Amino acid sequence: MVQLRLPKESRVKPGKTWSTPKRADGKPAKRPKRIRVYRYDPEGKENPRLDTYSVDTEDCGPMVLDALIKIKNEVDSTLTFRRSCREGVCGSCAMNIAGSNTLACTKAMSDISGSINVYPLPHMPVVKDLVPDLTQFYAQYASIGPSLQTKSPPPTAEWLQSPEEREKLDGLYECILCACCSTSCPSYWWNPERFLGPAALLQAYRWIADSRDEATGERLDYLEDPFRLYRCHTIMNCATVCPKGLNPSKAIAEIKQMMVKRTV
User: What is the layout of strands, in order, in the sheet containing 32-39?
Assistant: First the structure.
């Protein structure tokens, strides 16, 4: 049987365990929750580690992001993570929580029994702690031309769509580019430089499906590649983890169907 192990310098080691905070009156926390957080600084020489913190859920907001903010503000200011809107809109706080990619600002601590394990998005270079390097992810998004492309002279007012044409964009435009889907995809793990991944392909189809766009042929030509599009094997991890309830696999299947139709 084949046994695969991480290189010695990449193995995650136990980190520091911080004491459970007490209430303002000095009494023990009423409802403590233990949170184990991945810590790593690539500029240092130490292995990644898991630090253990405790927060009193009676004195903290309900979401995992609330706990992380409380830890950073009151316990360990060196903890590093991204966050912005706190409303599930910006996608900044995407991370792996309790084994699944999601948004920390919309993941309730009460949904997780026992300790909460928090890691950065998987299979991405780590800038520090819970911050992944999304440079390649954004470059792939840019490569699909995420804007309206037309050849006709612009109208005097605006590009019009019928309600039916507009409806075709539902389930596509809502993507917040959090990268939860792409980083949960095994095909993207194994071919990250060549397979565009679920998020970029969902966005590609968003413009292909737009009745106002006039570059469908060029867009399909770009995607006609053994790796850019066809590495998708419909595993459906992307649809399972999407915090907005979108289905990138369906969008990718629609692109594949268009590829077939234009060759018939």
Answer: 13-17, 49-56, 32-39, 116-119, 94-97, 100-103
- Count how many residues are written for the chain: 264
pTM for this one?
0.92
Residue linked to tokens 């037309």: 150
Distance CA 159, CA 152 (A): 11
Determine contact, residues 52/25, Cβ cutoff 8 Å.
no
**Which residue shows structure tokens 């002279």?**
153
Nearest to 86 by CA among 69, 72, 99: 69
Instruction: Write phi, then psi, for 173 (nearest 5 degrees).
Output: -70, -20
pLDDT tens-digit readout, 204-256: 999 999 999 999 999 999 999 999 999 999 999 999 999 999 999 999 999 99
- Report how far apart, in Å, the C-alpha atoms of 201 and of each of 96, 137, 143, 208 are: 22, 12, 10, 10
- The DSSP element (H or E) to which 54 belongs, if any, is strand 49-56
Task: Tell me the two tokens of residue 239.
Answer: 């649809």
Cβ–Cβ < 8 Å for 61, 104: no
The burial of 64, by beta-carbon neighbours within 10 Å (0-12 exposed, 13-18 middle, 19 or more buried), is given as buried
What gap in Å lies between CA 249 and CA 234, rounded to an integer?
6
- Report the C-alpha gap between 151 and 235 in whole angstroms: 37
Find tokens 């629609």 and name the residue.
Answer: 254
Tell me, what's the pLDDT at 19? 85
Report how far residue 92's alpha carbon sits from residue 140's, in angstroms, rounded to the nearest whole number. Answer: 18
